[in-house]
């Protein structure tokens, strides 16, 4: 169960009950003067049991650790109240830290429900109470120490630069040790699954492009090992980054190919006509929570296609409508990234 990935960095799985992700890879970095836990798991009994057993196997008590929250998702922050209640130091980034506390409230989740008619998904009868992020959120707000991009966080022999890895969430953080060429990438680089890139609102100009820019920034770093928080630890990070960029190129083209010229589409209509790696024969058989994730990812891609003038987005009353303008996408590369930034 417990694995020492490299000297003084340990990992163990924390069960994510009734979730396609299956488990969270919790990382524990042990130094002489501090022990740091990265992320926590859902606020659920199965997650709590695995987390406590993992720490016990490492001969670590809750009271003696510090906790870093890499990003806002409930599978990463749901159990943080355990540590806050024990008086532990909790760290989070500026953007996601604020959102973590907002997600405790029902008002935050009600604001997400406002996207349902925008996507044209009223008939899917999505229910907030079924969303795993809502069901397994932390119980109460936390006081946290804000981590700043570009500063360093030292633990034992490791000195991690705090990186802005925005994209998977608006304020996702990464932790990079340049000398040891190790990146704690959390959900930014995953293998064999791909990180969910969803629409967070128009206040985030093009979250898919933000994510791709993040991947390109990581290609400029020397990284031998990426410590992902789901599935595999990644021994060829640059190769996997290339695969993720290609995946989104192909996804964008698939969306365009699913559209006919001269016809207007809702997010839902496009979501039902593209492929998904899920055990369901058709859209009607999707679990409702998965419909929500699928629509959000479709919207993030459509928003990028609108920003690159491949589709037209109509923002009238009711549902957003998208019309195809081009036959082929603008592929992701450094030149196209720069052109998108100027929009």
TrEMBL record:
Gene3D superfamilies: Ribonuclease Z/Hydroxyacylglutathione hydrolase-like, Winged helix-like DNA-binding domain superfamily/Winged helix DNA-binding domain. Pfam families: Lactamase_B. InterPro entries: Metallo-B-lactamas, RibonucZ/Hydroxyglut_hydro, Sec-metab_biosynth-thioest, WH-like_DNA-bd_sf. Signal peptide: none annotated. It comes from the Bacteria. Residues 23-230 form the Metallo-beta-lactamase domain. PANTHER family: ENDORIBONUCLEASE LACTB2, METALLO-BETA-LACTAMASE SUPERFAMILY POTEIN. This is Glyoxylase, beta-lactamase superfamily II. It comes from Atopostipes suicloacalis DSM 15692.
């Amino acid at each position: 169960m417990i694995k020492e990935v490299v000297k003084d960095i340990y990992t163990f799985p924390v069960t994510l009950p009734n979730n396609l992700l299956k488990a969270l890879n919790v990382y524990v970095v042990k130094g002489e003067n501090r022990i740091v836990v990265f992320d926590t798991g859902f606020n659920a009994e199965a997650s709590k049991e695995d987390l406590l057993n993992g720490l016990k196997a490492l001969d670590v008590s809750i009271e003696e650790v510090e906790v870093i929250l890499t990003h806002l998702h409930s599978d990463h922050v749901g159990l943080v109240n355990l540590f806050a209640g024990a008086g532990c130091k909790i760290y989070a980034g500026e953007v996601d830290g604020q959102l973590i506390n907002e997600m405790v409230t029902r008002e935050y989740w009600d604001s997400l429900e406002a996207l349902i008619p925008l996507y044209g998904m009223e008939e899917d009868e999505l229910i907030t109470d079924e969303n795993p992020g809502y069901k397994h959120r932390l119980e109460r707000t936390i006081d946290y120490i804000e981590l700043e991009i570009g500063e360093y966080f030292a633990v034992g022999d490791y000195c991690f630069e705090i990186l802005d890895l925005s994209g998977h969430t608006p304020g996702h953080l990464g932790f990079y040790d340049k000398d040891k060429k190790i990146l704690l990438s959390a959900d930014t680089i995953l293998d064999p699954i791909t990180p969910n890139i969803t629409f967070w609102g128009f206040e985030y100009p093009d979250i898919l492009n933000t994510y791709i820019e993040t991947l390109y920034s990581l290609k400029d770093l020397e990284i031998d090992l990426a410590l992902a928080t789901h599935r595999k630890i990644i021994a060829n990070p640059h190769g996997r980054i290339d695969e993720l960029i290609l995946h989104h190129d192909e996804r964008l083209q698939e969306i365009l190919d699913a559209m006919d010229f001269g016809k207007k589409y809702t997010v839902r209509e496009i979501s039902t006509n593209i492929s998904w790696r899920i055990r369901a024969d058709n859209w009607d058989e999707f679990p409702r929570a998965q419909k929500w994730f699928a629509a959000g990812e479709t919207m993030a891609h459509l928003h990028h296609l609108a920003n690159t003038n491949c589709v037209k987005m109509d923002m009238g009353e009711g549902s957003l409508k998208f019309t195809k303008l081009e036959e082929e996408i603008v592929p992701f590369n450094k030149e196209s990234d720069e052109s998108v930034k100027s929009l």
